[in-house]
Known about the structure:
Layout: H1 11-14, H2 16-27, E1 32-36, E2 45-51, E3 54-60, E4 66-70, E5 84-86, E6 90-91, E7 98-99, E8 105-107, E9 126-132, E10 135-139, H3 147-150, H4 154-161, E11 168-178, H5 182-189, H6 195-198, H7 200-205, E12 213-216, E13 221-227, E14 248-254, E15 258-263, E16 267-277, E17 280-290, H8 296-323, H9 346-359
Antiparallel strand pairs: 1-10, 2-3, 2-5, 3-4, 4-9, 6-7, 7-8, 9-10, 11-17, 12-13, 13-14, 14-15, 15-16, 16-17
Amino acid sequence: MNPPIRAMAPRHYLDPEVFQREREAVFYKTWQFAAHASQVASPGDYYCFSLAGQNLFLLRGPDGKMRCFYNVCQHRAHEMLEGSGNRRVLVCPYHAWTYDLGGRLMKAPGDRRVVGFQRKDICLAQVQVEDLLGFLFVNLDPAAAPMEAWYPGLRDALARFVPGIDDLKPMEVRRQNEACNWKVSVENYSECYHCERVHTAFASGVIDPESYDISVNGGYCLRHTSVAANLERMSYSIDVSANETAGQYSSWFLWPAFSFQVYPGNLLNSYRWQAEAVDRVAIERGWYSKNGVESEEIARLAQQDMDTTVAEDVRLVESVQRGLKSRGYRPAPLIVDPAGGVRSEHSIAALYGWWEAAMDGRIGPA
């Protein structure tokens, strides 16, 4: 008989050296959410963002193709762009080296006086980018497999649960800082063992705990599923006859740091975890509506979520981070039920396995 799986050692959450290794082993080799396609909709549109200490920007080319570049000039490392906007060409603010929208050097002041200078050999460094139903993801590993290999079936499943997803745009994004290691926050999200005790509004007004389950949905995805709570207790109105999935809850956690979450009524929201330090993570909570138009119902649900589930989780994860420093803590076995269910931590065991393999250099689809 195999011994039970125990919670990970505290040093994995507390050691700054482990955190620095994670950047290389995990965040620079996995698919990370960057922006919604509507934020870079027209040729020349750009959007700057950061990923685990690396500054990058998305750019829509004149050919309509989406590209992603490291935000650094190849001359003497000045950043190329700030914020968001639209450009016909890319001009470095330092010495005016100019690149086209495909990242190729067009001119550098004085370069014709330099023997052997070859403009054609100089390009901005590019990064893999994929458009998943309007959500743009990047991977800093040039050899990384496409998202379909990492998260099989995700595109079709998500489109089925959100029939109008092609028309959605960000309505609002809310940011929450948490004083904990990113894995503490991800693990908290990835089990519902605590939901009935802590998340009363979620457990009674969104999902039905007895039907709640989490499965390893192929690849590096955890799939959360549940039917809606009793309609009389729902915290907002829904039409369960609208389509085959309107009365269900579903979430797809894409390891390591993003989740699509579909509330009953086909309401889409998202989580993005940004690991900022060994003991600090920022959560970006996105809410989406048709064409990004303000919805009083979605705004009310977003506020309820911040006031209840998010606030409750902040207290939990920050307490865990403090507890990990206790000399009295001895990691105990996880509650892993072979049958799954809401009171099982099999999903946490999956997270441990993915993390351990990545830190050992074994990452990506087989």
